[in-house]
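Hey L., structure's done. Input below.
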Amino acid sequence: MRISLLIIIFSFQCLAASNTELQKELVSMAKADQEVRNKIATIGWKNAPTDLLEKMRLIDTRNTDRLKEIVEQHSWVTEDSVGKKGVSAAFLIVQHSPDYKFQEEMLPLLKQSFLNGEGVTGQEFALLTDRILVHHNKPQLYGTQLNIQNGELVFAPILDKENINKRRAEVGLPSMEEYEKIVAEAYGMPVK
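Output:
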């Protein structure tokens, strides 16, 4: 009985993050990211004061610089090292980074983490993939990137629309039809 209890306790400890200090730091960085964005969203992105937008840029730059140091020291973080919350926080920092080159450098690491089941979700991989493609004026693969035009949500161009639901399913995303409903409800405006 004692041996099986030790095995169970050991198993649960393996599921936890091994670097809790780094996990706390990443989660704190992501919290700062979200707090400033939530303030801006409450005011409205069109009406956001310059000082708040500047604060967001400073947070994004500071977070990016620190994540670069972390990746240089530890490589890309994994669920084993910083837990699911830590990996998601690191992803958020990459996604909001003003350094597009850094985003591109991180994409293969995020893809590998997703494929290896090391913490990056299919949705996170798809979001960063599409963000990078759209930044390079290329059609997106997963249909995650939208813009607001004339009071409507408009998807950035999508490659091979006929097979988009297949690609979305491969990374665990809902169909485009479901996603359009979710996005329209979340933003309170129609999708064109």
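Residues 20-120 form one domain. Residues 50-74 form the longest helix (25 residues).

-- N.
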